[in-house]
Specification:
The chain is of the alpha+beta class. Helices cover 50% and strands 15% of the residues. The protein starts with 17 loop residues before the first helix and ends in a 5-residue tail after the last helix. The protein binds flavin-adenine dinucleotide.
Length: 388
């Protein structure tokens, strides 16, 4: 198959800097040559990620790529977004791996950690020598994390943490867990080495979505951590929620990659598939679907680019990320479903990417704020009335 060329109906390439195009193109080549040949095997093995690629991902500068110092790539937020797009063109599991490591683990250490914590962890995480996970969701609290039951109490010079976290990406792969827990002072973030006594990670099996990604349940039973494990510069839900804004920003770009992959596959397939004496692409119903895909990808690109530029200018608001994440995931999922449909029976096998992206996007619609929760965030923003 010819190399993936991307989708650029409005010549948006002209709006990217050379650095941004270079970042995108190098990740595109990595995904085509090194990641995609492996994906089928990992999807078939429930919950396995190609860990042998971690040093390559690090070498490309993709962990915490929009952070500064400590060996980070210091990319613009638009370059970072394009990187996420290309990773998710491969698989949402690949983008999730990088999103969690950068947006949910490195970001809180960078933004809220002490200098000692930054020096200790960021060089390890940027190089992929250490893997991190982000423990916020609990079995009974996903959208409404303020109800979390995980609790940390002071003991001597440190803390003791008890609780359960569920649906944690990379939980059993991680050497470091960022654990959010209730304390007498409000919600605090803790840097917990996963080898500490009382910490256990068990993988969740039987996932029909994000199969090439490890998802775990974390059990913390009297896990003792020293005082300098707590992130000193944030208290309350502002801590985890600002991490989520970073990761949701990456998702808003990432899903464009999944949508592009599905559109590209459907376009090529329908041009070659003969039905009723001619190519399937020549039928009106097919063209309606392909035009929908191109239109929605183009609109999603414009949204992502605008929020990216605003983020680079320090003017991005979390509600803008809610709108963009919600819209872009929704249209990517519609595009994946339509692409799967156009492929007919072939659309249900893993020789093609549409169904894999489609089921992955069901997770992406749920995690990092569900589709409806983002609607409620936006509804409150425009009316001043809280309906959540
Ligand atoms: C593969 C995967 C990986 C994940 N990785 C991580 C991770 O690394 N770290 C982490 O902390 N979490 C992670 N999550 C968890 C994810 O963020 C949560 O699943 C998500 O926040 C939704 O929570 P929930 O599953 O409890 O659903 P619920 O909150 O129970 O929501 C169920 C339904 O109810 C709706 N709903 C909820 N509240 C309202 C309301 N007030 N009004 C109307 N409708 C409402 C929702 O929109 C949804 O449709 C992951 C999840 C998955 C599937």
């Amino acid at each position: 198959m010819a190399d993936f060329q991307g989708v650029d109906f409005l010549h948006l390439d002209e709006l990217f800097s050379e650095e941004e195009r270079l970042a995108r193109d190098s990740v595109r080549a990595f995904v085509s040559k090194e990641f995609l040949p492996r994906i089928q095997q990992h999807v078939r093995q429930d919950g396995s990620f190609p860990m042998e690629l971690v040093p390559r991902i690090a070498e490309l500068g993709l962990f915490g790529a929009n952070l500064t110092g400590y060996g980070c790539a210091e990319m613009s937020n638009v370059a970072y977004g394009l990187v996420m797009q290309e990773l998710e063109r491969g698989d949402s599991g690949l983008r999730s791996f990088a999103s969690v490591q950068g947006g949910l683990v490195m970001y809180p250490i960078h933004a809220f950690g002490s200098e000692v914590q930054r020096q200790r962890w960021l060089p390890e995480l940027v190089s992929g020598r250490a893997i991190g996970c982000f423990g916020l969701t609990e079995p009974d609290f996903g959208s409404h994390v303020s109800g979390m039951r995980t609790r940390a109490v002071r003991k001597g010079q440190g803390w003791v943490i008890n609780g359960t976290k569920r649906w944690i990406t990379n939980g059993s792969l991680a050497q470091l867990a960022v654990i959010w827990a209730q304390t007498d002072e409000g919600v605090r973030g803790f840097l917990v080495e996963t080898e500490r006594p009382g910490f256990e990670a068990r993988d969740i099996k039987g996932k029909m979505s994000l199969r090439a990604s490890v998802t775990s349940e974390l059990f913390l039973h009297d896990v003792e951590v020293p005082e300098d494990s707590v992130l000193p510069n944030v208290t309350g839900l502002r801590g985890p929620l600002s991490c989520l804004t970073q990761a949701r920003y990456g998702i808003a770009w990432g899903v464009i990659g999944a949508a592009m992959a599905c559109y590209d596959e459907a376009l090529r397939y329908t041009q070659e598939r003969m039905v009723d004496g001619g190519p399937l692409a020549g039928k009106q119903l097919t063209q309606e679907k392909l035009v929908y895909m191109l239109t929605e990808i183009t609109k999603a690109q414009l949204l992502a680019l605008r929020v990216g530029r605003l983020k680079d200018e320090g003017r991005l608001e979390h509600v803008m990320v809610s709108l963009t994440k919600r819209n872009n995931v929704d249209v990517a999922l519609q595009i994946a479903r339509q692409a799967r449909d156009l492929l007919g029976a072939n659309g249900i096998v893993d020789d093609y990417c549409a169904m894999r992206h489609m089921v992955n996007l069901e997770t992406v619609r749920t995690y990092e704020g569900t589709h409806d929760v983002h609607m409620l965030i936006l509804g409150e923003h425009i009316t001043g009335l809280r309906a959540i």
